[in-house]
Amino acid sequence: MIDSMRYISISHPRPLSLGSRKLTISHYSRSMKQGFTLLELSIVLVIIGLVIGGITVGADMIRSAELNSVISDLNRYRVAVNTFKLKYNALPGDMKNAEAYWGTMSSGTCPNATAGNGTQTCNGNGDGRVVVGGASGQASEAFTFWQHLSSAELISGNYSGIAGSTHATHSILNENIPSSSLVGAGWYLITVNLQAPGTYFPGSYGNVLYYGVPSVNGLVTGWPYGSIIRPIEAYGIDVKSDDGSPAHGKTRVYRNLNPNCRTSQDAANAEYSLTNNDIDCAMVFLADF
User: Fold this and answer.
1) To the nearest whole percent, how much of the chain has pLDDT over 90?
2) Is the pLDDT of residue 18 over 60?
3) CB 145 within 8 A of CB 93
4) Domain residue ranges of the chain, discontinuous segments joined by +
5) Which residues neighbour 254 within 8 Å (Cβ) at sequence distance 6 or greater?
6) Is the model's pLDDT at 97 over the cut of 50?
7) Partner of 133 at 20 to 30 A CA spacing, among 58, 63, 219, 226?
8) What is the mean pLDDT of the chain?
């Protein structure tokens, strides 16, 4: 009897009822093995495309916002310095009586002190220029520039006013210079009265804000001239803030430190290397103060 029932269950599978339609187990199994239809696959591919497209658009929007922040930071620092000059009748870093406002660094002798606490700082020499001085691990105007602005509550952040341990220009993000929205990049200021041979395109510079990655090797250790953006991105910043030329105006690039950013060392025909999609540019901004 048991064998007979087993034979019946195998030979005559019990139908599955789906409303008025009956589907046998064997028929159901064959349907499952057929997989997705072309329409279903098309829908899946469209969804995947939309997801990838959304990610790409999102990444582009983030990058665009980061690049726009370069111009925002530049304008913010210009306003901060001009406000400082109106309030204290001095240039940050170069200020002759900064210690009277914020205290004197407690270790070493200014202007080459090596330690401070809070707002403690060193006076500048009041000659109207912001210069690199001292040595590694010592205070200098190029770093007290940011410290004075912060102590005056005109920019955010706290800055030591002291060079890093390897060189008089050793810049450390968020320690002695401000960082940027672009990861790894920061800002640095000095007065350029004498053009360094080959470094800059010809022209008058004065106070210059540099924007790039602090270097640990190269021409000047620590100075943020390392590349951070593509030539087409540098061009976009230049067009929005100036004249679109890498060699003229108030927004420029280096003549020789980032050679793949521009097409020529000759200022007369230099353009941004727009066909180059590599990260090959740092920026040089004439500060307007």
Assistant:
1) 60
2) no
3) yes
4) 75-286
5) 199, 200, 225, 261, 282, 284
6) yes
7) 226
8) 85
CA dist 158 and 175 (Å) reads 7
Tens of pLDDT, residues 173-211: 999 999 999 999 999 999 997 665 678 998 889 999 999
Residue with token string 């929005």: 240
Q: Render the burial of 126-138: b for 16+ CB within 10 Å, e for the rest.
A: eeebbbbbbebbb
SS3 string, the chain, reads CHHHHHHHHHHCCCCEEECCEEECHHHHHHHHHCCCCHHHHHHHHHHHHHHHHHHHHHHHHHHHHHHHHHHHHHHHHHHHHHHHHHHHCCCCCCCCCHHHHHCECCECCCCCCCECCCCCECCCCCCCCCCCCCCCCCECHHHHHHHHHHHCCCCCCCCCCECCCCCCCCCCECCCECECCCCCCEEEEEEECCCCCCCCCCCCCEEEEEEEECCCCCCCCCCCCECCECHHHHHHHHHHHCCCCCCCCCEECCCCCCHHHECCCCCCCCCECCCCCCCCECEEEECCC
Predicted structure pTM score = 0.79
Strand-pair partners of 206: 192
Report d(CA 190, CA 224) in Å as an integer. Answer: 12
What's residue 60's pLDDT? 75
- What are 63's two structure tokens? 């990058």
**pLDDT tens, residue by residue, 234-264:** 999 999 999 999 999 999 999 999 999 999 9
How many other CB atoms are there within 10 angstroms of residue 233's CB atom? 21
pLDDT digits (tens, 9 = 90+) for 135-147: 889 999 999 999 9
